[in-house]
Amino acid sequence: MSSQSCVEVHTEWGIVSARQAGRNKAKEIGFGNVDQARITTAISELARNIYLYAEKGEICIGEVSEMGGAGVKKGLQITAKDVGPGIDNIREVMADGFTTSGGLGAGLPGVKRLMDHFDIESTSGEGTTITAIKWLR
Amino acid sequence: MRVPILKLHNYLLISVQVELDDQTALQFQEDLLSKIHKEGSTGVVIDLTSVEMIDSFIAKVLGEVVEMSNLMGAKVVLTGIQPAVAITLIDMGIKLEEVPTALDLEQGLEKLQQELEG
Ligand SMILES: Nc1ncnc2c1ncn2[C@@H]1O[C@H](COP(=O)(O)OP(=O)(O)OP(=O)(O)O)[C@@H](O)[C@H]1O
Ligand SMILES: [Mg+2]
């Protein structure tokens, strides 16, 4: 990864800073309006989850690239990391509508659909790391 | 930060111009309901032209605002939802069900009038 910047999330303001950082990076990489909104929304969901369920953590945003059939692909990678309670049953939390906080339960399944790549690693009692990538088309 | 609420006859007009952080969104919910109560408003137009992102939390607050306002006897129309925001909401699988929407404030007011008369 060429450059990565991280925003600490432990207040509601951290959520706002993280999504602003994400929008700026998305613009810089050259994403259009719609993908900017997708990326910003995904960051907002992940940051809010950190704030709600793990109290604190960080969101890192960086540019990534990959060799593809048509040359070098550029993308934006989001890494959301916390050392909170972790997630016991990943299948369960990835289902639309599953929530333990009276939310819509749209966050994690939504992020997965908004982004092109989605990976979740979590150990109960140790924390959660979620990585998501959007490729520039 | 507070979202300003304007009164026009029996209606309330809101143009959301600030970045909707959680606190601002909840404060707005509270402010709007007490204003409906105080003014006896029958209709509300919430214009979202300047809103660049609606995540699941904001969507939930907006949905609740509409439902609570309806309970209090005021119809709500949402206007000016940006294409990128609409696409994102669909991707997220979030449905603002049964919420009347219109292209802009002017059409929103017309829609309110129709809804209230019809
Ligand atoms: N970082 C995390 N650490 C621990 N548990 C988490 C974390 N993120 C999500 N969860 C769990 O996964 C569930 C589903 O998360 P998701 O974001 O999909 O929905 P929600 O936050 O409950 O509601 P919404 O995001 O729609 O407001 C949460 O209710 C919570 O129990
Ligand atoms: Mg969530």
Automatic annotation (TrEMBL), chain A:
The keyword Acyltransferase does not apply. This is Serine/threonine-protein kinase RsbT. Gene3D superfamilies: Histidine kinase-like ATPase, C-terminal domain. Residues 35-132 form the Histidine kinase/HSP90-like ATPase domain. It comes from Salsuginibacillus halophilus. Keywords: Kinase, Transferase. GO terms for molecular function: kinase activity.
Automatic annotation (TrEMBL), chain B:
The lineage of its organism: Bacteria, Bacillati, Bacillota, Bacilli, Bacillales. InterPro entries: Bact_StressResp_Reg (IPR051932), STAS_dom (IPR002645), STAS_dom_sf (IPR036513). It comes from the Bacteria. Residues 1-112 form the STAS domain. CDD domains: STAS_RsbR_RsbS_like (cd07041). PANTHER family: RSBT ANTAGONIST PROTEIN RSBS, RSBT ANTAGONIST PROTEIN RSBS-RELATED. PROSITE patterns: STAS (PS50801). SUPFAM superfamilies: SpoIIaa-like. This is RsbT antagonist protein RsbS. It comes from Salsuginibacillus halophilus.
